[in-house]
Specification:
By secondary structure, the protein is an alpha+beta fold. The protein is built from 4 helices and 9 strands, in the order ββββααααβββββ. The protein binds zinc ion (ZN).
């Protein structure tokens, strides 16, 4: 008797179907073909931290479209919350149009060991599509707000991070307030890793701290979570 396939991994699962030894690639999520090699991307921005997400194929048509729509719409909800993220979010959504076109060129999936994911509604018919207007709103509402904050807050010196330090977030996820703490403390949440040189990315799962936390108020640093949650 054949062993049953493992539980469905969903668009963000790390599990991947075994690839055939010969011939064309099979979908990593359902094992069907035709499938195409492609990477679908996502972005989570927060006021200070941000995270880059990606899921590599191969994907069949339906699993690919499902993954594209889910990651793009999640990006539209979660992507905007930071000064750099404001630019990265629309770029991520645009870059995902490449894999989307590749998935749409494929025929219907056949021969999988489980049904392909349901692609669901197209991105433009999901509520998240309205969030493409977020930058426009932000400019309209944000500039007066920034001026008001600037007038009220004076010149408070921001925290500067250096590698090897540990920090905790004394604020909320959306409104962060990083505080340097002892690395042995049970309250320590992130370790500050080597500052980025050029384009070297942070380790998977790590956050990128905004430039104002870098030495001298510029430069980027990675915040690696000390615990898996
Ligand atoms: Zn599939």
């Amino acid at each position: 008797m054949a062993t049953p396939p493992p539980p469905h991994p969903g668009p963000y699962g790390s599990w991947s179907a075994p690839q055939p030894a010969y011939g064309p690639p099979a979908c990593r999520l359902c094992g069907a073909w035709p499938a195409v090699e492609a990477t679908v991307r996502g972005h989570q921005g927060m006021v200070v931290l941000m995270r880059f997400l990606s899921l590599r194929g191969p994907f069949c048509r339906d699993c690919g479209l499902a993954t594209h729509r889910r990651m793009s719409s999640d990006t539209l909800w979660q992507g905007w919350w930071g000064p750099l993220s404001l630019f990265i979010t629309p770029v991520t959504v645009l870059v995902n149009l490449g894999p989307r076109a590749a998935f749409r060129r494929l025929g219907p999936p056949t021969g999988g060991f489980r049904p392909a994911l349901d692609p669901g509604r197209p991105l433009r018919r999901r509520p998240a599509a309205l969030l493409l207007l977020a930058p426009v709103l932000l400019v309209l509402l944000g500039i007066p707000a920034l001026i008001a904050i600037g007038l009220l807050s004076g010149d408070e010196k921001p925290l500067t991070l250096s590698p090897g330090q540990c920090v905790l977030n004394a604020g909320t996820l959306k409104d962060q307030q990083l505080v340097v703490t002892d690395c042995g403390s049970p309250r320590a949440e992130y370790r500050v890793d080597a500052l980025l040189e050029g384009e070297r990315p942070c380790l998977p799962g790590a956050y990128l701290a905004a430039p104002e936390y870098g030495p001298g108020g510029y430069g980027l640093s990675c915040l690696t979570p000390l615990r898996q949650d």
